[in-house]
Design brief:
2 copies of one chain form a homodimer.
Chain A: H1 5-15, E1 24-25, H2 28-34, E2 37-42, H3 52-62, H4 65-69, E3 72-75, H5 79-91, E4 95-100, H6 105-113, E5 117-121, H7 125-139, E6 142-143, H8 150-156, H9 158-166, E7 172-176, H10 181-193, E8 198-204, H11 209-216, H12 238-247, E9 250-254, H13 256-270, H14 276-286, E10 296-301
Parallel strand pairs in A: 2-10, 3-4, 3-6, 4-5, 7-8, 7-10, 8-9
Antiparallel strand pairs in A: 1-2
Helix pairs in contact in A: 1-3, 1-8, 3-5, 3-8, 5-6, 8-10, 9-10, 10-12, 13-14
């Protein structure tokens, strides 16, 4: 079974009791600044503060009872971890969470708050996967990969479904890309519901593996992930990249200072709290990397979990 | 003509084309923390970032043409200034704004952005009024007082109208009080539409003149206004106080640390940006000064204009 629109719509029905239908907000000030019409899908208002609630609930509630009883496990930079812990608690099963030791404190606290059992590991992909494999061997838990799992992708795609239901005639959808779960779901949902809309992925140049992969035509390993956008410090997944190749028109990269400027502009103009990863699409507009003049542009604001003691424009303590 | 419900409803019709109907948001986390059901009317999302857009538009659009042509003037700590500048621009007339020299930079920039003509003065009431009188003598402009003007009060009351339209069966409405424009409008609208609802005003203890006045039975002068809640550093107006005496059940004061904690809790739980003044009602809940257990509580979040470089939990530069 592959990722397609019916699967995303089924996910939407499945998760509806457990997630918010988030609002789509607009800003006259930001529209005037760019000359386009921007429609921000506010997944910062989602349960656990990020779109990840969608995919996690869909994956956990798609398990059969016998499998579910053995629990779930994952490795995650944070939002997926909290989301999976919450989804597991909703189903009454255990969640084993492997987190890199440099994860923002707020994200570890969130996992604990939902009853997730955390194991910290070195902040690299190999260490994450090894720690997770060990837990799975011991418990029989099911790995719910943060982005390569198709039920996760289907769940993430439901944000775009709602965006397209609420806003007619979008010309363009902008989406951040880390592992590619949100992007894959967004791309399939958008192309299914509105084939004429163009999808552009955006990522930090400091973690530019998806753009490199897009140019190369195959997944290029992430060699550095030195970006403030902590949700995007991940190599794009192979199944995700296959979907990107089919549906995404371009992958553009942005500078760190643009991410901070975009984040701050959205806070100031829209009075909403978004995390750096969520600011990446608007950063691409600020840099002029995406032409939005005269176009109707949907933007997925992926999350709002920031450490208010460590905002990027604060003087370093 | 005095302030009554029909006048507030007429104001609502008058201003509707020029303001946002702001959303009412809820937070499961904050509800669980206090045991009540909290309904936040998000005037931080309002035009100019504060409820002040409502009163200013109503006052400016209530002027006859000949009077309007001579322009408008005011003295304000900031949000009313931006709101009046914007309302004047919408009507195509001049706005003369007297601002205290210690106003947050973001607020002065906002006034300039709307084409208002700023005169800075010493940060005290006497200096504000003198500077304003001088401008009025020179131009023939109409003073639009930030809170004693009844058209302003009527406009501010429209936020409560929308709140009561959107949320049934409120038991209690909490509102911050500075000069008392929002409070007067909120009280009259609430008592008109839902007489059984109790209205409680909240203010910083460090600018506790409304509470002092409420106990004394007459307006007590504000002797210090040493509060982070910059929108509430104002003595309550005489006409406003008369309305408070008639309709408001209590005025409770809160500590500065509670204001900061409340502001931060709302940012973190709800992912929205509010200014310190807007956090004062929730601070009263945090301090246990208002019993909300089992009650349906409307809270006016008055505005979202904060200087992101000077957040109260930042280390001092």
């Amino acid at each position: 079974m592959s990722l397609d629109l019916p699967r995303i719509l089924a996910a939407h029905d499945r998760i509806r009791p457990h997630i918010h239908r988030t609002p789509v907000l607009t800003s006259e000030r930001l529209n005037q600044a760019c000359g386009g019409e921007l429609f921000f899908k506010c997944e910062n208002f989602q349960k656990v503060g990020a779109f990840k609630a969608r995919g996690a609930v869909n994956a956990v509630f798609s398990l059969d009872d016998a499998t579910a009883r053995r629990g779930v496990a994952t490795h995650s930079s944070g939002n997926h971890a909290a989301a999976l812990a919450r989804a597991a608690r909703l189903r009454g099963i255990a969640a084993h969470i492997v987190m890199p030791s440099n994860s923002p404190k707020i994200k570890a606290r969130a996992v604990e708050g939902y009853g997730g059992q955390i194991t910290f590991c070195e902040p690299n992909q190999a260490a994450r996967e090894a720690a997770c494999a060990k837990i799975i061997a011991a418990t029989g838990a099911t790995l719910i990969h943060p982005f390569e799992n198709e039920d996760v992708m289907a769940g993430q795609g439901t944000a775009a479904v709602e965006l397209l239901q609420d806003v007619a005639d979008l010309d363009l959808v902008l989406c951040p890309v880390g592992g590619g779960g949100l992007l894959a779901g967004t791309a399939v949902a958008t192309k299914g519901l509105r084939p004429s809309a163009i999808i552009i992925a955006t990522e930090p140049a400091q973690a530019g593996d998806a753009a490199d992969s897009f140019r190369a035509g195959h997944v290029v390993p992430l060699t550095k992930a030195d970006t403030i956008a902590d949700g995007l410090r991940t190599n794009i997944g192979a199944p995700n990249f296959a979907i990107v190749q089919r549906h995404v028109s371009d992958v553009v990269t942005v500078r760190e200072d643009s991410i901070v400027a975009a984040m701050r502009a959205i806070w100031e103009a829209m009075k909403i709290v978004i995390e750096p990863s969520a600011a990446v699409p608007y950063a691409a507009i600020l840099e002029g990397r995406v032409n939005v003049a005269g176009r109707r542009v949907g933007i997925i604001l992926s999350g709002g979990n920031v450490d208010l003691d460590a905002l990027p424009w604060m003087p370093r303590a």
